[in-house]
């Protein structure tokens, strides 16, 4: 085993825990109030989310791109953050109707603060969805051309995850009352409709050309250890029951 300076990194975790514990004794909830516990909990989950995103980014940078026919599945990464944006922004906009008047002292003020925090947090998530969109788009640059991509059901990822991006774009535009963003959202609808028509046409074409929905074609291949159950022909000694 070759020694490396990275071998001491696990010990730094304990040093951080000791530092946190010692400061908590001085500046803990007894001195600052219960808000510190909530803040630490929120920061923990933010740190955990960033760690997962960072690990996923490193994995994508080190691994090769998927096969051409299933590469459209990369657009699935656009959906989670985009749907989160549209959902959170919409709920934050209606928080004032849901919060009691005495919620956290002043329900209306708490709803306004929540809306501001959620809008700016979702602005970052919206940018993350756009980032994944461009990564998935440029990954298809080498597949442009006739005969380079056979149709697969993953092609519908060209459409449905990007509907979430358009929905998130409208949500951000309404949250910040930004007319240019709303115009961009409207402009994104027409290419999406054309893409849906194109994918549907390619699906019909693939069925006619027997690229999908035929034995040993497309998703009907016996891959990954799965075998297709075939009807065995009857032996001469066997008789078909009446």
State mean pLDDT (0 to 100 scale): 76
Strand/helix succession: HHHHHHHH
Strand proportion, as a percent range, falls in under 5%
Tell me the total number of β-strands: 0
Rg over CA atoms, rounded to whole Å, is 26 Å
Query: In this structure, how is the largest beta sheet organized?
Result: none
Query: Helix tally?
Result: 8
Oligomer: single chain
Helical fraction equals 55-70%
Sum up the overall morphology in one term.
elongated
The unreliable regions are: 2-8
How would you classify the helix and strand content by structural class?
Answer: mainly alpha
Q: How far apart, in Å, are the first and last alpha carbons?
A: 72 Å
The domain count comes to 2
Biased composition (Basic and acidic residues): 218-235
Subcellular location: Membrane
Transmembrane segments: 35-62, 74-93, 113-141, 153-175, 181-204
InterPro entries: Mae1, SLAC1/Mae1/Ssu1/TehA, Voltage-dep_anion_channel_sf
What does this structure look like?
With 242 residues, the protein is mainly α. The chain has two domains: 10-63; 76-142 and 150-216, no CATH class. The chain contains eight helices and no strands. Helix 4 runs antiparallel to helix 6 (107-138) and helix 7 (160-175) packs antiparallel against helix 8. The chain is elongated, with a radius of gyration of 26 Å. The N and C termini lie far apart (72 Å).
């Amino acid at each position: 085993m070759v020694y490396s300076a990275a071998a001491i990194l696990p010990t730094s975790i304990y040093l951080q825990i000791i530092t946190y514990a010692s400061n908590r004794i001085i500046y803990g909830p007894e001195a600052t109030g219960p808000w510190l516990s909530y803040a630490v909990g929120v920061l923990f989950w933010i740190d955990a989310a960033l760690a997962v995103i960072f690990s996923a980014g490193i994995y994508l940078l080190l691994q090769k791109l998927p096969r051409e026919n299933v590469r459209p599945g990369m657009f699935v990464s656009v959906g989670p953050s985009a749907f989160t944006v549209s959902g959170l922004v919409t709920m934050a906009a209606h928080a004032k109707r849901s919060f009691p008047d005495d919620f956290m002292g002043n329900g209306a003020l708490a709803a306004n603060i929540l809306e501001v925090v959620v809008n700016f947090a979702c602005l970052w998530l919206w940018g993350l969805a756009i980032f994944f969109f461009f990564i998935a788009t440029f990954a298809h640059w080498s597949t442009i051309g006739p005969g380079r991509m056979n149709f697969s059901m993953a092609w519908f990822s060209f459409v449905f995850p990007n509907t979430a991006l358009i929905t998130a774009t409208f949500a951000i535009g309404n949250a910040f009352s930004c007319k240019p963003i709303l115009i961009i959202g409207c402009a994104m609808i027409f290419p999406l409709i054309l893409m849906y028509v194109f994918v549907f046409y390619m699906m019909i074409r693939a069925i006619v050309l027997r690229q999908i929905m035929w034995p040993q074609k497309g998703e009907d291949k016996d891959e990954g250890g799965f075998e297709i159950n075939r009807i065995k022909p009857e032996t001469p000694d066997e008789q078909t029951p009446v």
